[in-house]
Amino acid sequence: MANTPLHTQFDSIAALRQALTSRSLSAHELAVSALDAAEARADLNAFLHIDRDLTLAQAHAADKLLASGQDAPALAGVPIAHKDVFVTRGWRSTAGSKMLANYVSPFDATVVERLHEAGAVSLGKLNCDEFAMGSGNENSAFGPARNPWDTSTIPGGSSGGSAAAVAAGLVMAATGTDTGGSVRQPAALCGVSGIKPTYGTVSRFGMIAYGSSLDQAGPIARHAQDLLDILDPISGFDPRDSTSLEHCNGSANVPGRIRSQYEQALQAQEAGGSLPLKGLRIGVPKEFVNDKLDADVAKAVQAALQAFEALGAVRVEVSLPRTELSIPTYYVIAPAEASSNLSRYDGVRYGHRAAQYGDLAEMTSRSRTEAFGPEVLRRIMVGTYVLSHGYYDAYYLQAQRVRHMIADDFQRAFADHCDVIMGPVTPTTAKHIGDNREDPVAEWLADIYTLGVSLAGLPAMSVPCGFGGAQGRLPIGLQIIGNYFHEGQLLAVAHRYQQATDWHQRKPEQQ
Asked: Which of 128, 282, 418, 472 has the fewest other C-beta atoms within 10 Å?
């Protein structure tokens, strides 16, 4: 590809970091080459806002730290980018919506702040479904992002711009958010890796809210080790976020927790020699194999499970009987929370305001109608309906009861049968842009394998495991689900799989 970024010469953040530390490469050189490549791949529509001056200022600061002779931060000079639901100083923060088309935040989200403190250099803001509502990145007010493997197809959503940018080699890693699968699904469809940590382990402060009891930040990168390098520094308790956890199963929720768990897991695996995953029990839910699953996806997942067995793992069948109930449950709870969260966008304080109106009520109505897209309006109306008098008990409270039952299903599986759960991320490979335009429910059904995890608040990740679809050239992802606070274990298991396979090393121009 023309204008190939310099950082693509390195297989990992660790290798890039070594080159930066030895001063064989500068953060400024990396930033310039990455910016040039991002602008050259405007056809992907992955970026919503790039500001060279802001990026190069961060690169200059990273070079000063690297040249100082002191220990520079762990990510000094590493090029990344942020999903446009994280507010940022300087760059616009739009959430993919006309409502916030020109909004610039006076402060950084905690995730942005922590990566900046770690020395990472941001290229800008990445495309996403409007207010993170969608599974294909087609709901962005600024047009869909496109999948680098086939630009006529979706990259997945809502973190589609993040996954597309990583898959195309424009950044080493990107931030995303996962409410119902929005890190795992685009990672799967774009052939990269992504992880959603346990709910509450990463601060939501400065994340433009969709569903407050579901939203969780997570990174997207090419492989598990790079995910660790991004996830560990952004995790930790934040007093500014009321949903942030101080402790994780007895351990303090601080940076270093996940890395320590990961390293301990790798050490334990070393005892297995040629069978590093000996004794690992992989639960395979029987409900995940059904008529909704495409044959090529099922085949790739089966091959991945066989690769894990070759590494010493044992496969056991488990049951998650309420898998299908996760769709109606999620699409009651998430829209209800969205209707509440989005009520702040009324045209009064900030955001879009209609040019013509008669009174305050008409100003609010016109502003919201003009600025919100159809999917956002649909979910606001659904949420308002289920929270209204006479329907709250019948819909919202009932959905919350089922949510607890779904979480209990996972806990029974972990307690009685397995250490991790594996299966598909999506029932199909990436669909063509526009396929679901007339049937939004079809898009909702694509979340069948990811929603239960989000409702339960569990950690889960996606790793590349094969190809399928038209001419066998579209990526397929394997989902790995862990018990609460076991992010390090998940990453270690994924790392062993990626040592034995090369799916994560495949790039669009090579397939």
From this structure: 472
